[in-house]
Amino acid sequence: MNNLLNQVVSLSKEVGEFIRQESLVFDTSKIQKKGFNDLVSYVDKEAEQQLVKGLKALLPKAGFIAEEGTSNHQEEEYNWIVDPLDGTTNFTHGLPVYAISIALMKKQEIVLGVVFEINRQECFYSLKGEKAFCNEQEIKISQISKLEDSLLATGFPYYNFDEMDKYLKILNQFMQTTHGLRRMGSAAVDLAYVACGRFEGFFEYNLNSWDVAAGAFIVQQAGGIVTDFSGGNNFVFGRQIVAASAIHQQMINSIQKYW
To answer: Which of 25, 83, 188, 236 is 20 to 30 Å apart from 89, CA to CA?
Structure first.
């Protein structure tokens, strides 16, 4: 597994360099829409094809859950969960916060996670039962234990606005009870930053498995707590997530006042 992790890290860096090079010459006329505010480009698609090809070579019998649908054939034991470019809207607008996210799921349990933040060249990774790392340096969650001393990350839904009134009340609550909220535009990056202690917590709804699988796993391996809004374990496929340090229960309490 350590050898496999090293190879996945290398693959993410290789494909990340392709994305970085494309960002220098990206033509905004080539942006496509999968749905309302749901953008995609040839860069997403080509990056996913490269990742799927590389991952198939590493673990031929594994299936895939991949955002752009290059290969979505799932297998019984192992499946890769892949986001080739988490933060596509940032990428298309020239904002330098986007990442590759790769997780390996055995049965229903994540056992490997890699998030490569392309512009800062930071690779976050871990294996089940092992420590979490960024560029070969061990990382851990923040030691801040009070909500009022924390900095939180979140995201805003870009479709399905039915829950917005409740969500705005939660944002209002956290604005008044923390050091502040940040919206980076990439859930994978947000989670990686929780894992290394830059944020004390992250919460969002309307997310997909490829947005959160790797990052949430790395938070757990770095000592953090990850749940859905109810405090349960359905955060990879349940479309809502709270990932945090010791302030996790305080965040849950605030969220559940309105959710």
So the answer is: 236
